[in-house]
Amino acid sequence: LKSDFYRRVYAVVACIPEGKATSYGAIARFLGSAKSARLVGTALKHSIGHAPIPAHRVVNSQGLLTGKHAFETPDTMACLLKAEGLELENDQILDWSQYFWDPAEHLNPLDF
DNA sequence: AGCGTGACGTATA
DNA sequence: TTATACGCCACGC
User: Fold this and answer.
1) By the 8 A CB rule, do A22 and A100 touch?
2) For a Cys-Cys bond, which of A9, A36, A52, A53 suits A28, CB 3.0-4.6 Å?
3) HSE (CB half, 13 Å, CA atoms) of A108?
4) Contact A61/A32 with Cβ under 8 angstroms?
5) How far is C-alpha A47 from the geometric centre of its chain's CA atoms?
6) Per-residue confidence (pLDDT) for residue A50, from 0 to 100
7) Å separating the CA of residue A26 from the C1' of nucleotide C4
């Protein structure tokens, strides 16, 4: 409840189950800051090489892998997701609603 | 103490 | 349906 924004983002991302993914906006809304989706992306960018979290499980609101360029190679993110069972095509998650994991439906806001 | 900066999202045309 | 426009705001200079 008192920690900084980045740290709260990392805590939520750490809870995303393998085989699922969520969006920047969904995380921002869950944290009570609906208009801060961009900050979520910025936080994840800075997490590379620091926080040991599954950053590849966060995509944009349409299921597109907009953060792929922040990884070691441009296809690292897609490979990780495919390895976890998601179906992709051109950096776009197919049947997005099937894989979408909403923090608000599985986590308690009071814990963050 | 400003100010530029985005791994976004939504509203328009 | 595909583009472009713009609000957003924590962080680091």
Assistant:
1) yes
2) A36
3) 2
4) no
5) 12
6) 82
7) 24
